[in-house]
Amino acid sequence: MGYRVVLISQDGIFTGELSEAGRHFDEREIQPEYIAFPTFFNAHVHLNDAVALDPPRMALDEMVGPGGYKFRVIWGRFHDISHALRAALDLKDTSHFLEFREGGEKALRVLEAAGVDGVLPLARPGSIEEARKIARKVRGFALSSVRDHDVEFIEELRSFAKRKDLIFAIHAGEKDNEDVEGALSLEPDLLIHMNRARKDQLRMAMNEEVPIVSCIRSNFFFGLENMENYDILTEYHNWMIGTDNAMICSPSILDELSFASFVMGREENLFAASLRGHIIFGTQPRTALVEVKPFRFSENFIHTLVRRVSSAHVSLQLPAFPEKFKL
Ligand SMILES: [Zn+2]
Fold first, then answer.
1. Which of 182, 269, 299, 312 is deepest in the core (most CB within 10 A)?
2. DSSP labels for 284-317?
3. 240 lies in a domain?
4. pLDDT single digits (tens) 125-184
5. Distance between CA atoms of 150 and 241, rounded to whole angstroms?
6. Could you tell me if residue 213 is inside a domain?
7. How far is the CA of 218 from the centre of ligand 1 (A)?
8. CA distances from 260 to 19, 139, 152, 252, 268 (A)
9. In sequence order, which residues have a C-beta less than 8 Å from that of residue 176 and are 6 or more positions away?
10. How far apart are the CA of 126 and the centre of ligand 1, in A?
11. Please, what is the average pLDDT of the chain?
């Protein structure tokens, strides 16, 4: 028993039969019951703040800056975080999450307690000693903007990550371009945002092949969007998509794509960017299934998936994606 599907992949759109676990696909002419697609990689999320969904509107600094609303609320509701995290990740369209986990050991224990899979943690330790202690449990470290941390600590953490072969990620160019140069001088492995970076700064990061993650809904929420930079990024082979703070946007990439495609078009580029994390971070997509019935009059299934299908439509997640469709 398997599934009759219209399968959307990087290689094109095919109809056929998919095995029960999603591992095998036989292309043939059939009437599909499901739309099948590879599960997405969310390349930037903060899951702790799923404990405080949909706060009042306020400026970026007041909300998520050092000592801002988010941090006051999160630490006050510490015991609920693992439950909130499980609820936020009850999604079938997205299987992997690069989690920018504020905090060190304590925050990692909460993640372990939640017992969720597919989360790749990048920690934000308070000191180099703490970084040493948790190095084995994380994929790397992730900092806020260079302006939010002590310069000496940032540089030490950067070289520690390099020695341990761990990822060093940093936010830059979100509210303005003043923290971009500082971030680039650290030779980061991953840059988040860059929506407000100058064009020459953006080009410099791209020439250095630093992967860049855009979080379109979050940028619009805070009034920080920049269509010109998104346009440049859509053509970049190391561009990825994230959802940023779980308190503001759900961690579903499908929901992010729906919004992003309406404001910027470029459905095929958005789809590719949403899978690229699997290649960069060495993870394997699974298969997500959506009943085809409400969408059977689609003119183009990739456009329908990116624009119209929401996370709530996705009814099943199978453990594998057919091997013959390599990312
Ligand atoms: Zn962030």
1. 269
2. ---EEEEESGGGTT-S-HHHHHHHT--GGGEEEE
3. yes
4. 999 999 999 999 999 999 999 999 899 999 999 999 999 999 999 999 999 999 999 999
5. 28
6. yes
7. 9
8. 32, 28, 37, 12, 12
9. 196
10. 17
11. 96
**Pair (207, 191) in one structural domain:** yes
Distance 246 CA to ligand 1 centre (A): 10
The answer to the question of residue 327 being in a domain is no
Query: Two tokens at 267?
Result: 């459905």
Q: How close are the terminal C-alpha atoms of the chain, in Å?
A: 26
pLDDT in tens, 239-268: 999 999 999 999 999 999 999 999 999 999
Residue among 157, 46, 159, 158 nearest 107 (CA): 46
Pairing of strands 3-9, 12-18: antiparallel
pLDDT tens digits for range 187-216: 999 999 999 999 999 999 999 999 999 999
The residue ranking higher by pLDDT, 292 or 65, is: 292
CATH number for the domain harbouring residue 302: 2.30.40
Strands, E assignment, the chain = 3-9, 12-18, 25-27, 34-38, 40-46, 94-102, 119-124, 140-143, 167-172, 190-193, 212-214, 239-241, 244-245, 287-291, 314-318
Same domain, residue pair 229 and 264: yes
How far, in Å, from the CA of 240 to the mean position of ligand 1?
14
pLDDT band of residue 78 (cuts 50, 70, 90) is: confident
243 near 42, Cβ under 8 Å? yes
Distance 296 CA to ligand 1 centre (A): 37
Total count of domains within the chain: 2
Is 143:172 a contact under the CB 8 Å cutoff?
no
Going from the Cα of 294 to the center of ligand 1, the distance in angstroms, rounded, reads 35
- Taking ligand 1, which is a single-atom ion, which protein residues have CB atoms under 5 Å away? 244
Alpha carbon dihedral 224, 229, 233, 234, in 10-degree steps, equals 90
pTM, entire model: 0.97
DSSP characters for 87-112? HHT--SSEEEEEEEEEBSHHHHHHHH
Would the pLDDT of 283 be above 80? Answer: yes
Domain that holds residue 32: 3-39+285-318
